[in-house]
Amino acid sequence: MGKYKEMGVVEIGENEIRQYTRSVASRKIRESTVREIISSLVGMPVPTINGVLTVRWDERIGKYIVLNGNHRYEAMVSFLNDYPTRKIKVFREVDDVDAIEGKRVIRELNSTIQHSKADYFVEQAFDSKIYKEFVLNKEQLPCEVEVYSAGRDAFSLVALVDAYMTRKNKTLCVMNKDEMLGAITKATPSDIVGMKHFLEDFVSIFGTPNREMYQLTQGFIRAMLKCWFQFYEIGMRKYFVDTFNNAKKSGEYDSKMIKILATYRRMNEGSRQTYRLILKIMNSGKIAKGDRVESLIPFEFGEKTI
Length: 306
Prior knowledge:
single chain; 306 residues; alpha/beta; Conserved hypothetical protein from pyrococcus furiosus pfu- 392566-001, ParB domain; 2 domains; five-stranded mixed beta sheet; two-stranded parallel sheet; 12 helices; 7 strands; disordered C terminus
């Protein structure tokens, strides 16, 4: 941690809370934790936060950025929204660090906490081109995309990056956290355009993402994108979309796909079987010789080892 410019108890009300905001490098908020804090505040004659709120002052935006205490901050926001005339007491530390050092502090504070891929993405890749294009500038996207997509009507950014950046690999295995971070760092403007085009075609085939869609599973996304890219890179993107939509209309697609995903509990095997079916759809019912996914050949487009 850096040197503290200021330490002490402050009162935060409806107006003061507007001077605070969360960092783009902060992890997912657990709603249950926020609710617990709110419940404790409601029952207090003088609402007081149990714990420290560590922040830094950002001159550029004229606000305090929360470094530690995001759940406390979210609880205060919600509480003051319901009780705008009340004040909350909290022990605040103002850390004397700049933006870069502040993000390092957040990483250190979270270093002992178990991380998911999504956590790793937010904390380590917040300054990447992919994060800026798909999180900070998402108004240009064809659908809702979230780093933390579970339980939401949104496409998983982690699944999208994982599938796209391994599209030319010989297997359908997922990347680990370090491999994903390396892939994010190496992503080019062309990769970002390709991911956006895939999202556009996904929406044109399946519609706006909702949490009930099995097509949003990581295994399905990896299989579909790997097949889609083979047509995309040779300029046959429209052919892929039209052929897939025709298969949906005929009823050939859905019943088989549901059966595959229900049968194969191991994601890698489910992805391979899903890939075979999507490839068969693209070949208008004709499937290439060979029973291993690595030997499948897209019909009439030459051999492509995957």
